[in-house]
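Field reference: sequence -> structure
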Amino acid sequence: MCVRKKQKPNAICFSLWGDNIVGWIHNKGDDGSGSLLSLWHKEVFSYEYHLMGKGFIIVYGQHLKSSSRCVVVNVYSPCALSGKKTLWEELSNAKLASQESAWCFCDDFNVVRSRSERKGIRDRGDQSSEIKDFISFIESNSLIELPLVGKNFMWFKTNGTTKSRIDRVLVTKE
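Structure field:
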């Protein structure tokens, strides 16, 4: 039996990134569920501060090449519609309270924008409301979805019968 010593967080992030020119923030989530890790290249992005909450990490800083201040939000949305609404409200409030204009929201929103983005899943009664509420979140925050390159779906059931487009990158025009 091989027993490994527990790796320190820096060593884990360095190994994920490939070198030690990486900054990172970790949100542990609830008992390991909903855990998030945000990483950035220290020679490209200058970290200033961050905010964390249930299902998100907001990192404020500056893109060094352009000298533009920007905000990157790493999202892991809950499955329940009530949790999603709470998350979207918190993110909207954070954006509204900020003076920054360049925002990027990315990762697992756990929601589709249309029924065509979900295949092989029985229609849930709250799906129409969920779609409308998500579209409202996008529009009220003046966000643009970056187009996909490659596959149209990001989540697949292991047997391939079910698939969804729940991962997204949403940005402001700035």
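Note: The longest helix spans residues 81-97.
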